[in-house]
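ok trying this again, last paste got cut off
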Amino acid sequence: MNTWQAAEAVDLITAARSAFDVFGPDSSTPAGKRAGRRLHRALIAAVHPDRAVAAGLDRAVAAQATADLNRLYDAWVTVGSNVQGPHVVGPRNVFALRERLWATPATVAYGTEDPLVRVEITRGAGVSAQPLGFLRDALAAQRMDAFVPEVLESAITDGHQWMAYRLPAGMRSLRDVHAAYPAGLDGRDWAWMARRILMTLAAANRTHGALTLDTVLIHPDEHGVMLTGWGPAGRGCHLDGAAVADLFAIMLNIKAAQQVSFARASERISPSRQLHEYDLLLQRLYGERRFRRFTLADQTTATSTGMR
């Protein structure tokens, strides 16, 4: 058992923002539970008021540290006992993995107990494919941080890097949109979605690598677009061109043939140039931009904010 000095133990306890800061992330395995119990006993021995006073610590401070320590330990044990089935343990939280939402060659995404929180895990051990933290900072500098999710935390479990992030309420996948409009979207509705996809790729200045109906999310009311499932950085941001063209073809189907043809013809150019030329096409097809309400079958009418 480790021997703690009273002041050192009090500093650890008072600085803790969660039970994991004191007892570590592993509260669910037998070895982790044993280590936690040993640490709890050692810290209690250090901060118990009778012993701490002899070490020169104020009795009230020692009593408060003891109460806080017991509260943190109870919370840590409770988290460990409540984890059922597959899960990942981060620096501050445990995320139970529920339904598998989608998979790409690099990443698998799972739902969690919170419908707005997802966990993406790299499929290959030792593969680094979780750039959202960097991307959010890069896009925030361009006032585009709303185009990527809020990262909660990330870690490595059994060699696989993972990341938990929170989505804003109301986000829907392109798969949901396609299911609601199987015959294809009006070209003007797809235009605001496609523009924001290209805007994100251009601002990120890196390859996404896994643009699909599942990894692209939209907010119908706010005309928002958010990209998830980012893979390892490729050699050029134009490498997403074929995937973007596939999305055009799927989401428009037989409608707006000129948009689909444009996407196929511009697969090899950069997203920033593609966006510029796409805007010229939209101007020629539809004229000046104007707001169009967009709804899914189970939604109420969107508010009149946002532009194509």
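PB: full thing came through this time. The beta strands are 87-89, 94-96, 100-103, 107-111, 117-122, 150-157, 160-166, 172-173, 216-219, 224-227.
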